[in-house]
Amino acid sequence: MTTKKRIAGVLATATASVLLVTACSAGGSTDTSGQSGDGPQTGGTVHMLQNADFSYLDPARGWDGGVNAFYRLLYRGLTMQAAGDAENPNEIVPDLAESLGEPSEDGLTWTYTLKDGIAFDNGDPITSAEVEFGISRAWDPQIGIGSPYLKTVIAAPEDYEGPYISGDLPTIETPDEKTIVFQLKQPFPEFDNVLAQVNAVPFPVGSGGGDEFINDVIASGPYTLDTYTPGSLIRLVRNEHWDPETDEVRKAYPDEWEFNIGLDAATIDERLIAGQGADADAIGSKLTAASLPRIQTPQLKDRVISAPAYCTTYMGLNTTKAPFDNVLVRQAVNTALDRSAVQNASGGTQLADIATTIIPPAVSGHKEFDLYSSEDHKGDPDAALDLLAEAGLPDGFEFTLDIRAQPAMQAQAEAVQQSLEKIGVTVNLNVIDTSIYYETIGTPSQQNHAAITGWCPDWASSASTFIPPLFDGRNITEKGNSNLAQINDPAINTRIDEIRAMADPEEAATAWGELDAQIMELAPIAPLVFEKGLFLPGSNIAGYHPSTNMTDLTIIGLKDPSKG
């Protein structure tokens, strides 16, 4: 949300910053990392301090960078993204499956075989029936509002509405307890990546209907839920039925995880900088701009870790609502925007690069261009006014902009406001609680004229998970919609299909970059910045490899669990 998602995909990370309140548990220290001294050890409690609650505990509903990382502690799928410290952390590897999928000669059927010794947190074995059931939940009209790839790639009857309404999904076959066979709509060479999505996880048959998983989980990963106080605290403890012999990625060093929620970003930074007591065992999200001058001491600089920008922060323009149904108006907004002001609001050059494209430079397929250029990226009000006059709006207009209830996003929104005031456009800010933000803007009936959000690649830093989720008009849904612009352009849709069918990855990457420019001529969004990250883990934290996309929590531990 990865609108990651992640919406991204969908929409960028829903969690803000994080902090701890209780001391770590004492206990013996066993080095299982192959390292000594500063390597992660088994035991203790790692604390995550954050501003906002996760969107959902249920992976069929949630889908953004912060909650996706959380899900890796609780849930397992047939495949998964490799560990954050792997030689290629974007690689897809087997998880519950013995190997990656075996495609048929025509690419329309993929077969997987389950490992032995895999179970839920109550000890019940995971079989092919639970895999089919859990995956089919993605089609439920109420629950399946998370990652869209299962529904866009796996064949299903046109009227299928998930297991609670329609029963078993006939295009996922389970010939025996260990074998799962998927039928696809069309060949999709990246199908292993689709099954690494957070909603492609097993659940006991018949469970999870309605709101059953709103405040509870059925875990298959190394941890299970001990305590959940919405908006305040999540405590995870070890799942005694998780067998590490079946899991080559998750190291699960800590005995417990504590997620302390509802802390403002300044407080989180203050505690991580001070690093006192149990705060030495804490991690958070990226540092705020206000804290950057304070981390210049040698001691703190040694703890700071940087991460490149894999995500695009942008303003989606709802093409179904006037005046953004007029391409000239959308082009005028892109032309008038002072992106340098948005960059400053995002923390300056240390934390953000100016974005003029959809695909960021770190993602395969990026093409450098700027269709709405201006001197120093400060906007061109005169050119924008000409476009508005041509559109029949010489005196400007008024619109509502949805934003998250976070200081950084509000600062970005205010920079947009001030830019557009110069062309007579009034921007009214609609502030939405972070925990429900993506669900709200992902419901077209609740969308206003525009929304600021972000998108990260869902796998392998590939533009194939950037362009289609945001601009394929055939995938606009009543809930969990990632196409915030609600653009449904036949030429874009056709080109997406053509690029997906390309067997040569380099040819496809080039084509995605060209399609990026083609889409931006229609201006359904206004790219703002590519946000980078500076992170400050506690001094007792080890195995921390932060990312602006998704930090792998499953390899993090404490250097000395006896401290705290």
UniProtKB/TrEMBL annotation:
Domain Solute-binding protein family: 91-475
Keyword DNA repair: no
Gene3D superfamilies, alphabetized: Dipeptide-binding Protein, Domain 3, Periplasmic binding protein-like II
Signal peptide: 1-26
Keyword Signal carried by entry: yes
GO MF: peptide transmembrane transporter activity
PANTHER family xrefs: ABC TRANSPORTER SUBSTRATE-BINDING PROTEIN, PERIPLASMIC BINDING COMPONENT OF ABC TRANSPORTER
GO cellular component: ATP-binding cassette (ABC) transporter complex; periplasmic space
Pfam families: SBP_bac_5
Organism, as annotated: Diaminobutyricimonas aerilata
InterPro entries: Peptide/Ni-bd, SBP_5, SBP_5_dom
Single Gene Ontology BP annotation: peptide transport
Coiled-coil stretches: none
SUPFAM superfamilies linked to this entry: Periplasmic binding protein-like II
Keywords, in A-Z order: Signal
UniProt name for this protein: Peptide/nickel transport system substrate-binding protein
